[in-house]
Design brief:
This protein has 465 residues and is α+β, with helices and mostly antiparallel strands. Helix content is 19%, strand content 22%. The chain has five helices and 24 strands. The protein has a seven-stranded antiparallel beta sheet with strand order 14-20-17-18-19-16-15. Strands 1, 2, 3, 4, 5 and 6 form a six-stranded mixed beta sheet that branches. It is globular. It starts with a helix and ends in a 5-residue tail after the last strand. The relative contact order is 0.07.
Amino acid sequence: MIILISASSYMLLSKLNSAGKSYTREQVTNKALTEAKLALISYAVTYPDKVNSDFGPGYLPCPDRDNDGSTDLGACASGTNTTIGRLPWVTLKLNDLKDSSGQRLWYVLSDNYRNNPKLEPLNSETEGQLRVDLDADGDIDAADIDDIVAIIIAPQEPLNNQDRDPSETDITMEIIHYLEGDNIDFDTDFVVSNLTNINDKLVYITRKELMEQVEKRVLGEVNQTLTNYFTTYGAYPWLSTFADPKTTEKRLVSEHSGADNQVNLTDTSVDFTQWGVANGDIVWNITDSSYGTVTGVAATTLTIGAGLSFGTDNDFDADDEYFVDVTAITTAFTGTATASNALILTDTNKDFSKLNIRIGDIVENISDGSSGIINDTATTTLTVKELIGGVLNTFTINDNYQIRTSVGRATADTDANGLTLEDTGVDFTIMGIQTGDLIRNVTDDSYGRITNVAANRLTVSELIF
């Protein structure tokens, strides 16, 4: 009996000790991940104070790519696989955080929240580009979390014959020896640990989590500024004039993706036919200050028959920035629904991704008189949260629509003083344009302040610069 009791006690104590050690290890990892997450949020909130006073809060550091604890000096981008690396603990002014296996933490950054190069502006509308598969099933479903701006990963103990060489600094080689599954393929999708071949433990920062703190800081500064103003002048400043915050200046500006020394323009990221580019439109090579006239249009190529003139090189080199002055640009953002489903607009004649239509843009159902904010986009479909202000407040087949944009082209000569703009392709009152708003003539780069608003006509007091 004594032997049986002793054996049972030994087995019980062994299990308790094992469970205790496992709990302790998990606590070590959780503590490191939590500290890293809080430090990244703090970095973003205090960015103007501690990093660069020329920019607002919200930016996050690029990863540590050479395992020295500091963010790399160069730019980072998902396209070059440089938005994943180790947590820059020196840059974040942290201790050298490690998980329970003694490994440094890894760190993934959403492209549009990086501090080099910066997205401008960065605000509460800026979506996080990362996604985490919480049920580790490899499918996009309700169990996934998206709109993530950063992920911190604890690699934990080696699995699957991983060979971790402390002297190795090539991230592309290292990653397969520290992370597993969908965490090693340099895309924007990540996965939590499962019971088979993945033991990576991770935490993430969503846009909502980050912006809740950033917004508090911004509101605090506004409060202090208004308080100081009131103390000085005995009153608060007058309200600014209103302009629709969802109306964007959609111009065809991008980069040449073809080879160097080309007469014609190539850009595989857009569809020139979708943008309504036509023969006679002007193409500007912003990089070398040359320009030419379009004589042929294909989906990804514009033919410049007489070549480019009046510039430095008078040709297109890889990554040269360009601007196309599209005569019929307004029609690019209008169309007719070829199908519909309540709040889903379908137009098989459009490629909304090539037109750079984004979540947060406003679509107007001209036939119904309603409008709504876009909350999902696909190649030929747009989904809105709701439609308001109309008769039925739904999309139906053959409905005419337009994506609200603040760019257009004068359809008639202005008055004798050149201070009246007429555009029959838009309704300035629906766009929310008001007296006092600024207008820019993008053709000659002049600016003016609006003094009168009509449906198709704007008048300014003067144009300057």
